[in-house]
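User: Okay, second chain of the day. Same drill as before: sequence in, C-alpha cells out.
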Amino acid sequence: MRALLVDPSAPAGLRLGTAPDPEPAAHQALVRVTATSLNHGEVTLLVPGAEPGAVLGWDAAGYVERAAADGSGPAAGTPVVTVGEAGGWAELRAVDTALLGAVPEGADLGVISTVPVAGASALRALHRLGPLLGRRVLVTGATGGVGRYAVQLARQGGAYVVATTGDPDAHGELLRGLGAHEVLADPADAGPDVDGVVDLVGGRQLVAAYETLAAGGTLVSVGHAGGDDEHFAHGVLYGDLGRHDRSVVSFFLLGGGAPLGRDLAWLAGRVASGALDAGVAWRGPWTEAAEAAEALRGRRLHGKAVLDLA
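Assistant: Same drill. C-alpha cells below.
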C-alpha cells in the first residue's frame, strides 16, 4: 500500500512511499482511507523523533474494506471515521472497532477526518467539566482545531463562552461566529467567576486560567502549545482563601473510559449536518503533505489541515 513515511531527509520529514499492508486483529476492521487530517502535535513532536519508514497518523476517514472478524463494528462498505496512535497516513488502516464511528452516507470524508483528535478532545474535555447549561466556560487557544470545536460545543451545551486568542482583533469575528460571547487576549481578563476551563496552551496561560476559576471549578489541561512551564505562586492552591475545591485535571484522549466510537459517530453526524464547523484551513492531496506540515509547524494555520489520498 502507499503511505506517508517518516524520512528525515525529506521536506518536513515525510515522503510518499510504500509500506506493508496491515494485518487486522479479530477486533479490528480494515479501513480504506480516503482522507486524513494533520495535527500540530504530530508534525512538531512525533515526526522528528520517529523511526525512518514509520507510518504515523492519528486521524483518518474512509470506508470499511473488511469488517472485524469477531463481528463487532460496521459492515464492509460503511463510511467511517477512525482514530489511533498511528497508521492513519496510509491507504489501509487496521483499527479497533471501539475507535471508529459510522459516518452519514454522502458526507465529505475530508471534512469528517478532522473529527477524531480535535472534535473528540473538545467533547470529552467539556464532559469532564460536567453540565454546561448556564455555566461560564473559558477556552484558551481557541483558534486551533480543538479550540474551535470546544467553543461551538460549549455554546451549544448552554454555556456562556469566553475564548482567548493571541490576536483578538484578527480572530474575534471568527470566534464570535462560532459561539464565543467574549474574545480576549489574556485568560486573566476573564475574571474570577469561571466555572470550567478547557486549556489548550499550558504554561503561563494555564496558571492564569486557573486563577479565574470560581469555587468548585475545574480546569482540563488538554494542550501544551505554549511550550513553557507551569509555576504556581505560593498560596495559589490554599483552600481557605474563598475559592476552594478548584482542580486541575490532566487529559489523554486514548486514556480509557467509554469507547470513542459513539462520540466519533455523533460528532461526524453534527459536522455532516452543518451543525458544527470543522474549521478546515488547508486542504490538498497527500502529495503536498510537506506544505501542510510546514504551515502547521509555523502556526500559519488557524484550523485543520486535510490531506486527500489520491
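The first strand starts at residue 2 and ends at 6.

User: Thanks, on to the next one.
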